[in-house]
Amino acid sequence: MSEFTHLNEQGEAHMVDVGDKDITERSARATAIVKMQPTTLKMILDGSHKKGDVLATCRIAGIMAAKKCPDLIPLCHTLLLTSVKVELHPEPDNSGIRITSFCKLSGKTGVEMEALTAVSVAALTLYDMCKAVDKGMVISDVKLVEKSGGRSGHWQAEG
């Protein structure tokens, strides 16, 4: 079994060959946080934003991004995702929105990059839709929080 690396024998970047790997059920969950002014959060939640339903637009953007991951991340495999969920949870006490994505498939490689791409693009979409009223928004804590399947099995972030 060869070592998984994005470098070939000549030290050049290449796509990892996953041909010898077993097909297993694989999933990944990622999160991100977007902090904003309380007035911006209120505008999003009460539906008074002039651009429409911010949360619905961000949800769709995240789903679309997960499906386009190989077009965005070099050397990412094209995957047949069986499920992509993006949820946006307002956190009024922290004046922010927590974004969570969940991706799954039955395949030879994991979906961590798809989950991370989904929350990243959803967060960027939120910023884009609200930047006219709050340029100081902060996107943070983009991270993988759980993955399952494949040779390494289940992993969950601490905390």
From TrEMBL:
Keywords carried by this UniProt record: Lyase, Molybdenum cofactor biosynthesis
Record GO terms (molecular function): cyclic pyranopterin monophosphate synthase activity; GTP 3',8'-cyclase activity
Pathway(s) this gene product operates in, as recorded in its UniProt entry: Cofactor biosynthesis; molybdopterin biosynthesis
One of the protein's GO biological processes: Mo-molybdopterin cofactor biosynthetic process
Enzyme Commission no: 4.6.1.17
Residue sites binding substrate per the record: 75-77, 113-114
Span of domain Molybdopterin cofactor biosynthesis C (MoaC): 15-150
Gene3D superfamilies (alphabetical): Molybdopterin cofactor biosynthesis C (MoaC) domain
Active site per database record: 128
Listed SUPFAM superfamilies: Molybdenum cofactor biosynthesis protein C, MoaC (SSF55040)
InterPro entries: MoaC, MoaC_bact/euk, MoaC_sf, MoCo_biosynth_MoaA/MoaC, Mopterin_CF_biosynth-C_dom
Lyase recorded as keyword: yes
Catalytic activity: (8S)-3',8-cyclo-7,8-dihydroguanosine 5'-triphosphate = cyclic pyranopterin phosphate + diphosphate
Superkingdom as given in the UniProt entry: Bacteria
Family: Belongs to the MoaC family.
Subunit structure: Homohexamer; trimer of dimers.
Its job: Catalyzes the conversion of (8S)-3',8-cyclo-7,8-dihydroguanosine 5'-triphosphate to cyclic pyranopterin monophosphate (cPMP).
PANTHER family: MOLYBDENUM COFACTOR BIOSYNTHESIS PROTEIN 1 (PTHR22960:SF0), MOLYBDOPTERIN COFACTOR SYNTHESIS PROTEIN A (PTHR22960)
Protein name: Cyclic pyranopterin monophosphate synthase
Species whose genome carries this gene: Oleiphilus messinensis
Gene: moaC
